[in-house]
Prior knowledge:
Elements: H1 10-20, H2 29-42, H3 48-64, H4 67-72, H5 76-85, E1 91-95, H6 101-109, E2 114-119, H7 126-130, H8 135-138, E3 141-145, E4 158-163, H9 169-179, E5 183-192, H10 200-209, E6 214-216, E7 219-223
Helix pairs in contact: 3-6, 9-10
The chain binds S-adenosylmethionine.
Amino acid sequence: MQGGGRRFDPGTLHQKVSRVSLFTSATGRTGVVLAAVRSVVQLGALPRRVRGFYTRALWTAIRLRDGFAIWSSAPPKDLATLLRLLTGRLNVVELGTHVGWSATALALGEPDRRVHTFDPRRWPTQRAYLELVTADVRDRITFVEGSGTDTPLSTASVDAVFVDTNHRPEVVEGCFHAWSGRLVPGGLMIFHDFGHPRHRGVTEAIDRLRLDGSTVGRFFVWTKSVD
Ligand SMILES: C[S@@+](CC[C@H](N)C(=O)[O-])C[C@H]1O[C@@H](n2cnc3c(N)ncnc32)[C@H](O)[C@@H]1O
């Protein structure tokens, strides 16, 4: 868990962010501003505790000029749907951490939930957002620096897996193959950005896998059979 320990230095962090992710051409300034406005408009969809965190995270991102965090993190409406889908699921795996907004929202969503979140890349601003929640929340999140297509966990049974990686079809398929065997019977595999015109890889992977499931908002939900 990387949440505890040394406090981050906002000055140094700001320089790092400026180099790596600030309003990059990949996102574009307009895209970031639109994403920020959308997030503010949607904040009311979130449960109170998660809304408090998301509001502080947005403000921190603006202060750090971390436009990529705003653009790339699941928006509040999607998070609210995800939290509803995961009600009562206490052992959750997330594939695709980025700066940790959705992992933190998942931990805040249920007081007894444990979240293992995987990302091959460590993003420099992550620590700043983790410091917005208390240690009891941070301690329930395990950050794993590695691909979602690997399964280094010793935990045999997982209640749900949230797939939100780079959306390339081979990665999404790899995540399914790696984790479907670890799910408990009745467990959920939830894929973000299903049907999104900019992330066709998710739909392509689900078609190729011939998964039978349901669409809920921007998610595809597959349930592991009970027999
Ligand atoms: C859309 S962002 C995740 C956003 C995050 N779930 C949220 O809503 O706050 C996608 C992340 O997937 C990560 N990623 C790319 N390939 C991956 C892989 N093979 N396994 C896990 N994560 C991956 C990227 O580094 C990036 O941080």
